[in-house]
Specification:
The structure holds 2 protein chains of 2 kinds. Chain A starts with a helix and ends in a 7-residue tail after the last helix. By secondary structure, chain A is an all-alpha fold. Helices cover about 70% and strands about 0% of the residues of chain A. In chain A, α4 crosses α5 and α12 crosses α13. By secondary structure, chain B is α+β, with helices and mostly antiparallel strands. Helices cover about 35% and strands about 35% of the residues of chain B. In chain B, strands 1-2-3-5-4 form a 5-stranded antiparallel sheet, covered by helices on one side. In chain B, a hairpin with a 2-residue loop joins β2 and β3. In chain B, α1 runs antiparallel to α2 and α2 runs antiparallel to α3. The two termini of chain B are about 15 Å apart. Classes of the chains: A mainly alpha, B alpha+beta. Chains A and B meet through α5, α6, α7, α8 and α10 of A and α1, α2 and α3 of B.
Chain lengths: ~250, ~130
C-alpha cells in the first residue's frame, strides 16, 4: 500500500466503498506508529503501556472505520482525536476505580488519625460534621475522602496481603475464639470464612455475628477503626469471590 | 414511608459508577447526623445490594436509585433496568448475614420490571442531627 498523501486518500476512498477488511487492516498497520506514540504520551499514569497501546490500537481501528475521505481533513488529525478520546475514557474509567486524588488521599490519612481519638473524647462514633471540624475541611470533602479511602481499599484487594499493614494487628488477632464455632449462621458461611486469615475471620464474626460496631471492635482489639473498616471491606469481597456461583449471567 | 424528601440517581450498571451510589448515601446520611460508624455500615450495605443487582462485572443498562429522607431515617430503593435477561436475583446467605448486621431493613427481589432492592437505615447514635 502506498503511503504518500494521495495514495492514502485513495486507499481510504476504496475502503469507504468496499469495506474490505484486508484493506482496513493495512490502513491500521500503516498508522500503528501514531497509536503507539499517543499511548506513550499517556504512560506513567498508573496503567501498563501495553494496555494503553491496545486501547490506542482500538481507537485507531475505530478511526479507520469511521473516517470520511470526502471531508477536507487529514486522517492523522482525525485519528489523533479518536485515539486520544479512547485513551482518556479508558484512564478515566480505570482511574476512577483505583486512584484517588492525592489531596483526598492525604485527607483520608488525616481522618484516620483523628477518628479514634475523637470517638474516645466524645464517647461515641463522631458525625461527619464533627470530623470535618476536626480536620478543618468541609463535610463534602470528608465524605469524598472517605470514599477515596474506599477506592483505595478496593484497589488493594488484589495486592499482596502485606501491603504496608502493621503486623501488630495480626499478632493481636491471632487467637481463635472457641465460641466463634457456635454461631449457627457461621456453619452456612463456613466455606467462605475459612478462606479468611484468622484476624479477618474474627473481625467478620464480631461485626456480622456479634453485632459489635466498627469502633467497638477497634477498641476491643486495640487497632484503629479505619483498619477494621478496611479489613471488613476486604473480607466481604473475598467471601463474595469464594461464594460466587460459577455462572453469573445467562 | 411518607412525607419524605427524595433524591434520585441513575447510573450505568457498572461497578465503577456505584461509588456515586455510596457517596450520595453517605452525603445524605451525613446531613441526617448519622455517625461515622453508621455511615460506614451504610456504605457497605449499598455496596452489597448494588453488587447483588449488577454482579461483579456489571450489566448492560442502568441502576436507578431513589433516596428517601426523613428525620433520622434514610431509605434507599435501587432498581435494575437491564437490557439483558438475567437469572432471578435474590440475596445470598452471605448477603443476608452482612445486611442484617448493617441496616435495619433490607430486601432484594426480582420483579416483573427487573430486580429491585430496598434498605432502611435509622440513626441510632446519640449525636444530634446536623441537617434535618
Amino acid at each position: 500500500m502506498a503511503t504518500d498523501r494521495e495514495s492514502l486518500k485513495e486507499s481510504f476512498a476504496e475502503y469507504a466503498r468496499t469495506r474490505d477488511v484486508a484493506l482496513r487492516d493495512e490502513l491500521v498497520s500503516a498508522h500503528m506508529g501514531l497509536a503507539a506514540y499517543l499511548a506513550r504520551r499517556f504512560a506513567n499514569r498508573g496503567q501498563p503501556l501495553e494496555d494503553l497501546t491496545q486501547v490506542a490500537a482500538l481507537g485507531l481501528l475505530k478511526a479507520v472505520e469511521r473516517f470520511d475521505p470526502t471531508l477536507n481533513i487529514e486522517f492523522s488529525t482525525y485519528a489523533t482525536t479518536t485515539i486520544v478520546g479512547e485513551l482518556k475514557r479508558y484512564l478515566r474509567d480505570k482511574g476512577w476505580a483505583v486512584r484517588a486524588p492525592r489531596r483526598m488521599q492525604e485527607l483520608y490519612l488525616n481522618l484516620s488519625r483523628v477518628v479514634d481519638p475523637l470517638g474516645q473524647e466524645l464517647g461515641r462514633s463522631p458525625t461527619i460534621a464533627e470530623l470535618a471540624a476536626e480536620v478543618q475541611a468541609s463535610e463534602e470533602e470528608v465524605l469524598e475522602a472517605l470514599e477515596a479511602g474506599q477506592a483505595y481499599r478496593f484497589a488493594s484487594l488484589d495486592a499482596p496481603r502485606s501491603e504496608g499493614e502493621s503486623d501488630s494487628v495480626g499478632e493481636t488477632l491471632g487467637q481463635e475464639d472457641a465460641e466463634l464455632a457456635r454461631a449457627e449462621q457461621r456453619a452456612i458461611l463456613a466455606p467462605m470464612l475459612e478462606q479468611l486469615p484468622p484476624r479477618q475471620r474474627q473481625i467478620v464474626h464480631m461485626r456480622f455475628f456479634e453485632g459489635l460496631t466498627q469502633s467497638e471492635i477497634a477498641r476491643r482489639l486495640g487497632v484503629s477503626q479505619m483498619q477494621v473498616s478496611r479489613l471488613l471491606t476486604r473480607s466481604v469481597a473475598q467471601m463474595r469471590a469464594v461464594g460466587r456461583p460459577p455462572v453469573e449471567d445467562v | 414511608m411518607s412525607d419524605s424528601d427524595e433524591v434520585r440517581l441513575v447510573v450505568p450498571a457498572r461497578p465503577e459508577f456505584l461509588r456515586l451510589a455510596r457517596v450520595t448515601a453517605a452525603g445524605l446520611a451525613g446531613r441526617l447526623g448519622f455517625s461515622y460508624d453508621e455511615i460506614e455500615d451504610l456504605r457497605l450495605a449499598i455496596d452489597e445490594l448494588c453488587f447483588g443487582l449488577t454482579g461483579p462485572t456489571g450489566r448492560h443498562g442502568t441502576v436507578e436509585l431513589a433516596y428517601h429522607i426523613q428525620p433520622g431515617v434514610l431509605e434507599v430503593v435501587g432498581e435494575g433496568r437491564f437490557l439483558e435477561d438475567i437469572i432471578p436475583i435474590g440475596l445470598t446467605d452471605l448477603s443476608r448475614v452482612i445486611l442484617s448486621a448493617l441496616v435495619d431493613e433490607h430486601d432484594l427481589t426480582s420483579g416483573p420490571e427487573g430486580p429491585r432492592f430496598r434498605l432502611v437505615k435509622r440513626r441510632h447514635s446519640d449525636a444530634a442531627a446536623s441537617g434535618d
